[in-house]
Amino acid sequence: MLRHIFALSLAxxxxxxxxxxxxxxxxxxxxxxxxxxxxxxxxxxYLRAWSYFRPETAPESKAFxxxxxxxxxxxxxxxxxxxxxxxxxxxxxxxxxxxxxATDGAVTVFTGCxxxxxxxxxxxxxxxxxxxxxxxxELAKSDQAFxxxxxxxx
Length: 154
Prior knowledge:
Layout: H1 2-17, H2 30-42, H3 46-50, H4 61-66, E1 71-78, E2 82-86, E3 89-102, E4 107-119, E5 133-142
Antiparallel strand pairs: 1-3, 2-3, 3-4, 4-5
């Protein structure tokens, strides 16, 4: 009996150590879309993560999912969002730095930029409604420490 209690205790401790982040799906701003993308990655919800990309420019879904096969968790920090308007759309650039921890414990820092577009909601009249979407992300490995790293948008 004691052996079963000990095994249950170990299983409970391991589960508690790997808590799943609360679900966040917030498409109210470019910053929140990027935060939601990495919330989905950290929850291993790769289809949801992929869904933040614009369908016409999204990476191939299987390759996107497979790219995170060895990822345990990703911490993201964002710089100042740059925004400009154009003929019924708002374009945003979100500089980022990522601290990616692999399942084997290895850590990699990436820096780069996400480019997003929001078609003005009042200008959308034909379904389906298009929320803020990521047009593309340009990320590269960085030699900087995560605390010092930040992407640049051009």
